[in-house]
Amino acid sequence: MITLAGTWRFRLDPQIEIPAPWQGKRLRLFLERCHWETRAWVDGRFLGAQDSLCTPHVYDLGMSLRPGKHRLTICVDNTPKHFLARFASSSSEETQTNWNGIIGRIELRAADPIWIDALDVYPDMGRKRAEVRLRIGNAAGAGFAARLTVKAASSEAAPEIPPKRSEFTAEGPHASVVMELPTGEDVRLWDEFSPVLYDLTALLSARSGGKSYTDERRASFGMRKLGVSPEKQFTLNGRTIYLRGTLDCCIFPRTGYPAMDVEGWARIMRTCRSYGLNHLRFHSWCPPEAAFTAADRSGLLLQVEAPRANVGQDPLRDGFIEEEGKRILDCYGNHPSFGAGNWSGWGSSGIRGISIPAPPLGACSGRASTTWCPSAACTGRPPTSIFATHSPSSRFRWGAPLPRLD
Known about the structure:
Layout: E1 9-12, E2 15-18, E3 26-35, E4 37-42, E5 45-50, E6 57-62, E7 68-77, E8 101-111, E9 114-124, E10 129-138, E11 144-153, E12 161-170, E13 174-182, E14 198-208, E15 211-221, E16 226-228, E17 234-236, E18 239-240, E19 245-248, H1 262-274, E20 279-282, H2 289-298, E21 301-305, H3 315-332, E22 338-342, E23 345-347, E24 350-352, E25 386-388
Parallel strand pairs: 19-20, 20-21, 21-22, 22-25
Antiparallel strand pairs: 1-7, 2-7, 3-6, 3-8, 4-5, 4-7, 9-10, 10-13, 11-12, 11-14, 14-15, 16-17, 17-18, 23-24
């Protein structure tokens, strides 16, 4: 990574080579973490611009690139797009700093024209099953017939989960499929003392226009449920839990940017556990995928936040924070360590918030989603993740100051 003082536009013009087996594949450029805005071109053709501070920037290069050498251009611009407050850990000089560049994985990815575009897992402890929601992308130019196979296994001594299969046909650029994966009565649960993980694999086999296509996508999940007892205590898997945590403001003085590898975060998680902690709050920033993976394995619950906590004063900035919230949920929601989120804040008349709509395939449940708020978007089955979101200020007004205890 190149570190530049102030705000800069940093331009990269690497030459890439498309291998012959990628002929006719759908190509994507994956930039794991960028600060702040990126723009991309291939052979002078503009691919678009993205501005997320919390999730990867992914560009679709299409299927027309022929094997051989091509010019890929990436411009990274760390000029502040919104004022995120003086102490926002996403960009302030006191914490993460407003660095410029790309960190983590930088990859070109190839997939068939019919592929698994999204894989969301919603554990349901009460029914002893996991609901698997998939979105299938189709760029083949015609309808298709497909078979999906979903299977899950644990490296722990957990009972085997039989695979499930679904056959279907679809037209158009997208198709949605919902499958239920029974986990059995003896399913192992995820908690801070026994963080049992299940590795789920979805296999797609499709035919369109006389051609065959395949794809595979993986996700890890844990069978766990966060809730609130009648006594207003947090519960995990039905047991009262006391969150013993600390704060992470994205301060990495040796590098100037956050760790992007699992082992780097595993060291942080081991340190937290050595002090008896089970909770880590990320103040006004969201860590990378590696942090969630390390926390999944360590049994820590994470509270992640959008790049700014306070909303209500700037509609454009509020829109950016809302989109960041959606991207965070889409990207990291399968992780059992993703226990809480916050993209609400202080308005002029009390606590205000942004309502993140429920996932398009159904009501809120299972994986991390907008699951604990009074808005109409959050109805349905009991929640398993806690969020501060759309909270009317009239319900949370501070009363008179408490009397002094002299």
